[in-house]
Amino acid sequence: MLSSERRSLVRFLAIYLGSTLILFSLGSYIFYNFQKYQIIDSQNAQLQLEAEKIVQKLRELHQTFDEPLLYPNDPTFDSAIYDVDRGYIFGTFKPKKIDWNKEFYKEKEKIFYLHTLKPYYLGASYLLVSKNFDPKPLNKLIKMLFLFLVGAGVLFTILGLFLGRLFIAPMKESIELMNRFIEDTTHELNTPISTILTNIELLDTIYNCEGQKEMRRIEMASKTLSRLYEDLTFLKLNHNYHRAVESLNISDLLNERIEFFHTLIEAKNIKIIKNIDPNISLEIDKNDALRLLDNLLSNAIKYNHKFGKLEVTLIANRLEVQNDGQGIKKENISLIQKRFRRANSSEGGFGIGLDIIGQVVKRYDFTFTIDSDYNHLTKVTLKW
User: Fold this and answer.
1) The dihedral of CA 339, 345, 350, 351: what is its sign?
2) Given a cut of 70, is residue 369 above it in pLDDT?
3) pLDDT tens for residues 25-35?
4) How confident is the model at residue 167 (pLDDT cuts 50, 70, 90)?
5) Across the chain, what does the average pLDDT equal?
6) Phi-psi category of 89—alpha, beta or left, where left has phi over 0 and alpha has psi -120 to 50?
7) 369 is a domain residue
8) Which of 115, 183, 274, 292 could cysteine-pair with 127, CB 3.0–4.6 Å?
9) In this model, does residue 220 exceed pLDDT 60?
10) Is residue 63 a part of any domain in this protein?
11) Residue 330 domain-assigned?
12) Residue 345: is its pLDDT beyond 70?
């Protein structure tokens, strides 16, 4: 899967799964709270039922004075009775703090029910019943909701992947068609370009023929086509071809590539200033190095003025290419580093040069910056 397809799929899944997660989380939260109150109400009802039993027993004890008074006791519940002044009379427990304003309340792990007795039985005005809150139903509910969310997450992730692939299918088909076109085009371009360049070199070397100016133009156009062919091939095979990383003399290679662009430089009457330290080595695949240098130099030449200046500086860990050409607006600097994007359409091109530079820089963990003063100069700095 190409990076553009992968980005589209990730974005679709992020929106789809994110919105689904929010929706299901909200629904689960509402359901959890509803069921939680149902569980609490159920346990409160147990307290009420126990309180009714105690009240009934107190009524019976109140009416029979000839039998010993036995306070009702259920080991599951705690209870206590209080007089009208809220003084403790008797019970199976004696809590330190009572919330007299609430009928039901919870404190730590216990739940309480305060029942008012009317009429008074055995002088009691209040009945307090308590039991330990049973967390099992609530834990079971939480576990069920967790399993539901996990199951729903897996199901909707699978569904999202299926829908996402359907979503990007037209784009994938278009990219495959474009890649096939590029592959076929580059294959067909290679032979005539090589033939033209070879014969121009032979004519220039062996024969002293007329039309030198015209020959230079043909050579310039052929080298432009050759560089375009190499760039398209790189884009097509970048992730597939074997890289032979070696210690490369980048100083010699840079001088060689400047000489390669001599015809283009001469056509614009550009003054070139070289500050290249000798024998600078860099661990890099040679094809990657060629694409890097060629695109840096090509852009610096293409977007330079006639009779402009091109300065190339190479030191131990830095390469700088600066021209005094058209410059780039600050808002366009990040834009032009994306594939098929150009800040200036007057000079032609496909907008792939900086994308290729970016791919090489990313692969080798280099640092790449562009500084530009619009309509004055542009400096590209590469650090390793």
Assistant:
1) negative
2) yes
3) 899 999 999 99
4) confident
5) 81
6) alpha
7) yes
8) 115
9) yes
10) yes
11) yes
12) no
Q: Give the per-residue pLDDT at 45.
A: 94
Buried b (16+ CB within 10 A) or exposed e, 304-331: beeebebbbbbeeeebbbbbbbbbbeee
Q: pLDDT per residue over 258-305, tens digit each?
A: 988 887 888 889 999 999 999 999 999 888 898 889 888 988 888 888
Task: Quote the tokens at residue 207.
Answer: 């024969």
Q: Tell me the pairing of strands 271-276 and 309-315.
A: parallel
Residue-number span of the structural domain to which 364 is assigned:
242-383
What is the pLDDT at residue 348?
Answer: 47
Question: What average pLDDT score do residues 71-76 get?
Answer: 82
Helix (H, G, I), strand (E, B) or coil at 1: coil
123/250 same-domain check: no
Query: Do the bridges between strand 104-107 and strand 110-121 make them parallel or antiparallel, or are there none, so unpaired?
Result: antiparallel
Tell me, yes or no, whether 129 and 248 share the same domain.
no
Rounded-to-integer distance, Cα 115 and Cα 80, Å: 11
- Domain end (from 80, 110, 134): 134
Q: What is the pLDDT of residues 116-142, one digit of tens each?
A: 988 777 788 999 999 999 999 999 999
The helix or strand, by DSSP H or E, that contains position 319, with its residue range, turns out to be strand 318-323
Would 197 be classed as within a structural domain? no
For residue 220 the two structure tokens come to 């310039």
**Residue 59, CA atoms < 13 Å, CB-side half-sphere:** 9
Q: How many domains are contained in the chain?
A: 2
DSSP state string for 130-167: EEE---HHHHHHHHHHHHHHHHHHHHHHHHHHHHHHHH
Those residues with Cβ within 8 angstroms of residue 120's Cβ, 6 or more apart along the chain or in another chain: 84
Where a domain ends, among 114, 134, 154? Answer: 134
| C-beta separation of 167 from 12 below 8 A | yes
